[in-house]
Specification:
Layout: E1 2-11, H1 15-26, E2 31-34, H2 51-58, H3 62-66, E3 71-73, E4 75-80, E5 83-88, E6 100-102, H4 105-118, E7 122-124, E8 128-135, E9 138-144, E10 150-160, H5 167-171, E11 175-176, E12 183-191, H6 198-202, E13 205-210, E14 213-219, E15 224-232, H7 233-238, H8 245-254, H9 260-263, E16 273-275, E17 281-282, E18 286-287, E19 290-292, H10 307-326, H11 333-357, H12 359-365, H13 371-381, H14 391-394, H15 396-413
Helix pairs in contact: 1-4, 1-10, 2-10, 10-11, 11-15, 12-15
The chain binds flavin-adenine dinucleotide (FAD).
Flavin-adenine dinucleotide binds at residues 11-17, 34-37, 43-48, 128-129, 161-165, 167, 185, 275, 278, 294-296, 299, 302, 305, 307-309, 311.
Length: 416
C-alpha cells in the first residue's frame, strides 16, 4: 500500500473543503483533498446568502466564481397566497455583503474545485475515505482510488468536510438526533421555457403552500430553474401514493397558485431527487486531531439557505484554528470553534423553528411593514448571525415569538 504524509487531510471538495483547502494552501500548509466523486456532481443547496462572499473572498476563490456569471441574488421573495414579502439585502442592518449568487451547484462546486487545483493543491477525485484511525492527534486514513487501489494517508490533522458522507461522525459514532422535526424535500431542475422577462423571471422565491410546506423557485443564469418542495416527511410522502418523485413534485407545483402556469407541463431535466429527514447533528464538532465542518457536523433546514454559509464559515474557522495551533499558539477548540459555531446555529435554529410555527411568517407578512424590524431580520437572512448589535440576533430566542404574539393579539382585537 502506498503511503503519503501531509499536514492536513481534507475529506470532501464541496464548498467547506475548498474554502479550507484554499486558505491553508495560501498559508503554506501541506494539504491534500480527497473527494469521493468525479466533479461536476449533482448536489442540492443552490441559494446562497451574502455571508459566503466573505469566505470566498478570504479564500481567494471569489474571482474565479465571479467569472462564471452566475445569477445574482440581491434578496429573497416570500409568497403566501396573495401576500408578498421581499427582502433586499442592501437594506439590511449593519455591515456586510448585499448580494450573492443563486447557482447550479454542479457548476459552482466544479469551478471552485478546478480553481483549487489550479492553485497547485493536491485534490484527488474518485478517492473515497474508507477508514480512519488515530494515535493521539496523528491519523492514518485508508483511501480507495478510482482504480480500486488502497493508500494510506498520514496526517497531523483532518478536516472532515464530507457533507452527507459524514465520514468521521459515522466512524467515531458522533451522530446524534437533530432537535428539529423530521422534514423532507424533493427537487429537480427544469428548462424555464415560460420564464417572464426582468426581475420576475430571475428572482428567487419561496412560495408557502401551507404553514409547514413550501416550494422553492431558484432561477439560474443558464435558463434553467431549480424547483423543490419541502415539508414534514409525512406530507412529502403523501404527495405520491406510488412513491414517484416526479409525480410528487408535479403535485406540489399544482398547489402553487403563483407558479402553476409558469411550470405546468415542464419536463424535469433529471429524475427528481428526494432527500428524506435531512436535518443532522453531532455530539461534538472536534476532537484530538480533527474538526468537523459543513454538513458533516450540523445541517438544520433549507428554508433560509444557510447550509453553504455554515459550511464555509466552519471550513474557514477550522483552517484558521489549525494554522494558529501549528504556529504554537494554544487553541481552545471548545470556545473558539464549537461555542462560536453554536452561537450562529442557535440563531438559525430559532428562525427555522419559528418559521414552521408560523410566527416568523406573521412578522414577514404583517402590513404595514415595519422597516426597522425588516432590516434586522434581513441581516439574519443575509447570514450575519454573529452580529450581536442586532437585537434580532442577540434576543433571537424570544423576540420573534413575542412580536408575533402582539401582532396576532392586535389583529384579533381590531378585525377589519
Ligand atoms: C433539501 C435541501 C435543500 C438545501 N438548500 C440549500 C440552499 O438553498 N442553500 C444552501 O446554502 N444550502 C442548502 N442546503 C444545504 C447544502 O446542501 C449543504 O449545506 C452544503 O452543500 C454543505 O456543503 P459541504 O461542503 O459541507 O458538503 P457537500 O457540498 O455535500 O460536499 C461534501 C463532499 O464530500 C464528499 N464525500 C462524502 N463522503 C466522502 C468520502 N468517504 N470520501 C471522500 N469524499 C467524500 C462528497 O462526495 C461531497 O462532494 C440544502 C440541503 C437540503 C437537504
Amino acid at each position: 500500500m502506498t503511503k503519503e504524509f501531509v499536514d492536513v487531510l481534507i475529506i470532501g471538495a464541496g464548498p467547506s473543503g475548498c474554502v479550507s483547502a484554499s486558505y491553508l494552501h495560501k498559508n503554506n500548509v501541506r494539504i491534500k483533498v480527497v473527494e469521493k466523486t468525479k466533479f461536476p456532481r449533482l448536489v442540492v443547496g443552490e441559494s446562497l446568502i451574502p455571508r459566503v462572499m466573505d469566505h470566498f473572498a478570504e479564500a481567494e476563490l471569489l474571482e474565479s466564481l465571479d467569472a462564471m456569471n452566475f445569477e445574482k441574488k440581491l434578496g429573497a421573495r416570500f409568497i403566501r397566497g396573495e401576500e408578498i414579502c421581499v427582502f433586499d439585502f442592501s437594506k439590511k442592518f449593519g455591515e456586510g455583503w448585499d448580494w450573492t449568487w443563486q447557482v447550479p451547484r454542479a457548476d459552482f462546486d466544479n469551478t471552485m474545485a478546478q480553481e483549487v487545483i489550479r492553485k497547485g493543491i493536491d485534490l484527488e477525485f474518485e478517492s473515497e475515505v474508507l477508514e480512519v484511525s488515530f494515535e493521539g492527534k496523528k491519523s492514518k486514513t485508508i483511501v480507495k482510488d478510482k482504480d480500486g487501489n488502497l493508500k494510506e494517508i498520514h496526517a497531523n490533522f483532518i478536516i472532515d468536510s464530507s457533507g452527507y458522507g459524514r465520514v468521521l461522525p459515522r466512524l467515531l459514532d458522533l451522530d446524534t438526533p437533530s432537535q428539529l422535526d423530521p422534514h423532507s424535500s424533493i427537487f429537480a431542475h427544469v428548462k424555464d421555457i415560460n420564464r417572464p422577462e426582468g426581475e420576475e423571471g430571475t428572482q428567487i422565491s419561496f412560495d408557502i403552500l401551507e404553514t409547514e410546506v413550501w416550494l422553492w423557485v431558484i432561477p439560474f443564469s443558464n435558463g434553467n430553474t431549480s424547483l423543490g418542495v419541502v415539508g414534514p416527511t409525512d406530507f412529502i410522502n403523501s404527495l405520491s401514493e406510488n412513491k414517484d418523485n416526479a409525480e410528487a413534485l408535479r403535485n406540489a407545483i399544482q398547489k402553487s397558485d403563483y407558479y402553476i402556469k409558469r411550470f405546468k407541463g415542464t419536463e424535469f431535466l433529471f429524475e427528481p431527487v428526494k432527500l428524506e429527514n435531512y436535518s443532522r447533528a453531532v455530539k461534538r464538532m472536534y476532537g484530538d486531531g480533527f474538526a468537523l465542518t459543513g454538513n458533516s457536523s450540523e445541517f438544520l433546514d433549507p428554508v433560509f439557505s444557510s447550509g453553504v454559509a455554515f459550511a464555509t464559515e466552519s471550513g474557514m474557522l477550522a483552517a484558521k484554528l489549525y494554522l494558529k495551533e501549528s504556529q504554537g499558539i494554544a487553541v481552545d477548540w471548545e470556545v473558539e470553534f464549537t461555542a462560536y459555531m453554536k452561537r450562529g446555529i442557535a440563531v438559525f435554529t430559532t428562525y427555522v423553528k419559528e418559521w414552521y410555527t408560523g410566527n416568523l411568517q406573521t412578522l414577514f407578512f404583517h402590513q404595514p411593514e415595519n422597516p426597522e424590524v425588516k432590516e434586522k431580520i434581513c441581516s439574519v437572512l443575509a447570514g450575519y448571525v454573529w452580529n450581536e448589535e442586532n437585537p434580532f440576533v442577540k434576543k433571537h430566542d424570544h423576540v420573534i415569538k413575542n412580536m408575533a404574539y402582539l401582532l396576532n393579539m392586535q389583529k384579533e382585537q381590531s378585525p377589519e
